[in-house]
Amino acid sequence: MTRRVKDGCRKVRFSDFVIINPKITLEKGKEYPFIKMEDISPGNRYVSFTGKRRFKGGGSKFMLGDVLFARITPSLENGKIAQVEGITKGFGSTEFFVFRHREGISDSSFIYYLSVSDIIRKPAEKSMFGASGRQRVDLNVVQELWIEVPPLPNQRKIAAILSAYDDLIENNTRRIKILEEMAQTIYREWFVKFRFPGHEKVKMKDSELGPIPEGWMVKPSSQVLEINPRIKVDKESENPFVFMEDLSNTSMVINCRTKRK
Questions:
Q1: 57: domain CATH number?
Q2: Does 169 reside within a domain?
Q3: 89 lies in which domain range?
Q4: Is 213 domain-assigned?
Q5: How many domains does the chain have?
Q6: What is the per-residue pLDDT across 82-132, written as a single tens digit (0 to 9) for each?
Q7: How many CA atoms lie within 13 A of 195 on its CB side?
Q8: How far apart are CA 240 and CA 254, in angstroms?
């Protein structure tokens, strides 16, 4: 069912625009690429599998180009939405909705950008129900969303423009990661192995932590840094809120995408 609107666009139900949780046949007992919720990095368009698992019949099933949409809190609020890359066929966490394009109606990449936008994401977040901390999106709400979409050729043009920006961001992210790895290497060399510039001329002395350069001291961490410092926060306005999932295993940067009062 569709409703015509201006500029060639039309209004459709989301479930008429995409295939939600499409049926895919996987062979029980066979190993397939598996995607965990942790594999998705907020802000990164693509997700690739990091390992394989034996398929036992459960989990969300997907194919190349499908969009994985976190349906549980706080993963959705954190932006755990990504497009599958490098996988012909696989499965993953049960906490994903899978969105696939409809032939001749929608474009896979456009669906990704639509999914990360407030048009789909915000109503999904508001529909959550269940026990606190484990709330999940109401699938019926997502299916019945009315959205305004352009013709297929325009969808592809929009996706191509946004993809170009994503490629630039991805390249910059890779550069930042290299710089962070260099910084960590320098830190280990200078402050763990004590191989800083000119270390050959520095005498070492014994300490409770082992040999350290002369002039250095060993102190409790409480004397050199503040632990849990007191900070005033305006209770009437929204402030950045950091979930545990925002902390990266590979980066020194906190990726905070949520605000709360």
A1: 3.90.220.20
A2: no
A3: 2-150
A4: no
A5: 1
A6: 999 989 999 999 999 999 999 999 999 999 999 999 999 999 999 999 887
A7: 5
A8: 11
**How far apart are the C-alpha atoms of 17 and 10, rounded to whole Å?**
11
96 phi, psi to nearest 5 deg: -110, 140
Take residue 166 and report the two structure tokens written for it: 């994503």
Look at residue 101 and tell me if it is in a domain: yes
Backbone angles phi, psi at 146, to 5 degrees: -95, 125
Two tokens, residue 11: 């209004």
Burial class (CB in 10 A: 0-12, 13-18, 19+), 228: exposed
Residue with tokens 């004397």: 223
Sequence-distant (≥ 6) Cβ neighbours of residue 170 within 8 angstroms: 44, 45
* DSSP type of residue 157: H
> Tokens representing 181?
């790895």
Which tokens hold the place of 139?
A: 């699938």
Question: Over the stretch 13-68, which tens digit does the pLDDT of each residue have?
Answer: 999 999 999 999 999 999 999 999 999 988 889 998 888 999 999 999 999 999 99
- 223-256 pLDDT, tens digit per residue, is 888 888 888 888 888 888 887 767 766 666 776 6
